[in-house]
Write a structure and sequence with these properties.
Layout: E1 21-30, E2 36-47, E3 53-62, E4 68-83, E5 89-97, E6 101-110, E7 113-123, E8 131-141, E9 144-153, E10 156-168
Antiparallel strand pairs: 1-2, 1-10, 2-3, 3-4, 4-5, 5-6, 6-7, 7-8, 8-9, 9-10
Length: about 170
């Protein structure tokens, strides 16, 4: 699916322009113990006239018949891009998570593919999260938004925890 770059979009936002919009679809989450479970997801990324994209995601488990079930997670944040200090382009994703954590990702964009690695993971004293490092990859394939999320904790090495394919609606 072709996308248009809005004329009012700041130049620093051009590498992220393809992600703007509302996306919905289905993914797979790796549960503790090795089980996998399907989930539904809605993601909204919007340019608010400033030099970033706002980001909101909510997901829920799907029943065996595909009907929405219990909430899985939500997150919100900001996508930014700009000079990496050496003349290249850096992409940043700043996320706030409801389990009492914030994650800051830094990476690179190449066309409609973005690869990010955590630069900071911080938790409140009451946080239920245990992530120590993470990676995310986003890409456009056949007009859809595909993403994958890998996580490491104090007790486990980096491993895939979720991925999804979302269609623009």
């Amino acid at each position: 699916m072709p996308f248009e770059i809005r004329v009012d979009l700041p130049p620093s936002m051009v590498p992220l322009a393809w992600m703007e919009g509302r996306w919905e679809g289905v993914g797979v989450a790796a549960l503790p113990g090795g089980e996998e479970r399907q989930f539904g997801q809605e993601v909204v990324m919007a340019h608010d006239g400033l030099g970033h994209l706002t980001y909101r995601s909510q997901s829920w488990y799907l029943g065996e018949d595909g009907t929405p079930g219990d909430p899985l997670t939500s997150e919100q944040g900001v996508w930014r891009s700009g000079d990496d200090g050496s003349g290249g382009l850096q992409v940043e994703l700043l996320l706030a998570l409801p389990e009492g954590a914030v994650e800051i990702y830094v990476g690179k964009a190449a066309g409609t593919k973005i690869e990010l690695a955590s630069d900071l993971v911080a938790r409140t004293s009451s946080s239920t999260g245990d992530t120590t490092a993470a990676r995310r990859i986003y890409g456009q394939v056949e007009g859809d938004l595909l993403w994958a999320h890998d996580v490491a904790t104090a007790g486990t090495p980096m491993r895939s925890v979720a991925s999804a394919r979302l269609t623009k609606v």
